[in-house]
Amino acid sequence: MHIATRQYLAAGILFWPFALGQNISATLTSAGIDLLDASHILHFLDIVDAFGHVSLRNPENDSEFLMTFAIAPAQATSQSIVTYEINNATAVGLTFNSSVLGSAVPAGFSERYIHSEIYKKFPDVLAVVHSHTQEILPFANQDSIPLVSEIHTAPAIGSGGAPIFDIRNLPESVLPENQLHDLLVRNEPLGDALANTFCNDSQLVLMRGHGMAVRGSSLREVVFSSFYIKQDATVQLQATLLGGRKKPKALNAREVMDTATTALTLFPRAWPLWVQQADNTGLYTNDLRNGAAPFATGF
Asked: What's CA 282's distance to the chain center, in Å?
């Protein structure tokens, strides 16, 4: 029995995957395919592990976003995808099963407010990644050497370097003493504070002791950016150790602008390769792309 099926049974939820009479558009199906591929690719590329998440603004309703409920990205299927309201990150229902609505939806990620508040603040943002990628953490945990765009595939970091969100520095009005101080972005005020940390042309916010948030104009862009931010952090750390330097050798503003334009032409080459590589592992299930009704047996 598939792991997601076991989760539903444990939660007392019994249903046929695509509720009778539910009309799923080609646009929404395509979005679901890309969202599942993004979840699986992020895991395959070692950007997320059992934790972390990716989301997409609903292409049919820009006041909503799609992301999975709280499940490891590698295990996401169509029956993990939830439609959330951007206004308050409340679950509307399972995107691909209209029989599971509202409070019946399995528990979501506690940090879904990272996504909702970024979408709320930036109407042009269509996709968001949050991860705990180890390679970027040294740059999130100190502010003497910033993470900058050093390689031509990482213009998402921006020309001024990556800003750092340090939850410890928030006023008590945003993070009261009687709330958990566990570095997690658990509510709208914390998500809003993080969203306000984005600056200039950077699509990235580092999170002290935690990870990163990346915004983008498409799922394919935000996955591409997340991977090459990780690569850039590795290169910068190695170059710093090799050369004994303290000042990073960053791309200038013109180089960031032009490499960002070039990067737009690279997604079509990288994405199908990553999809194929992930598929070849046999670990991931994109039941929407495969055209199979998920979990149609076993009920």
From this structure: 22
- The H or E element spanning position 165 is strand 164-165
- Please tell me the distance from the alpha carbon of residue 267 to that of residue 286, in angstroms, as a whole number: 20
Span between the terminal Cα atoms of the chain, in Å: 10
Place of tokens 């229902």: 93
> Across the chain, how many H-helices and E-strands are there?
8, 9
Which class does domain 26-271 fall in?
Answer: alpha beta
Residue 120 corresponds to which amino acid? K
Q: For position 22, what pLDDT does the model report? A: 66
Q: Give me the residues paired with residue 56 across strands.
A: 66, 127
Read off the tokens for 256. Answer: 């960031």
Strands 204-207 and 97-101: unpaired
CA gap 95, 108 in Å, rounded: 13
Domain boundaries, the chain: 26-271
Which helix (H) or strand (E) is 258 found in, with range?
helix 253-263
Measured in degrees and rounded to the nearest 5, phi and psi for residue 9 equal -65, -40
User: What pLDDT, on the 0 to 100 scale, is given for residue 291?
Assistant: 63
Check residue 299 and give its pLDDT. 20
Q: Distance between CA atoms of 138 and 140, rounded to whole angstroms? A: 6
Question: Taking the alpha carbons of 236, 240, 241, 242 in that order, is the dihedral positive or negative?
Answer: positive
Q: How many of the other CB atoms lie within 10 Å of CB of 249?
A: 11
Output DSSP code: residue 292: P
Mean pLDDT of each 10-residue bin along the chain, 299 residues long: 42 42 85 98 98 98 98 98 98 96 97 98 98 97 94 95 97 96 97 96 97 97 98 94 82 95 93 97 92 37
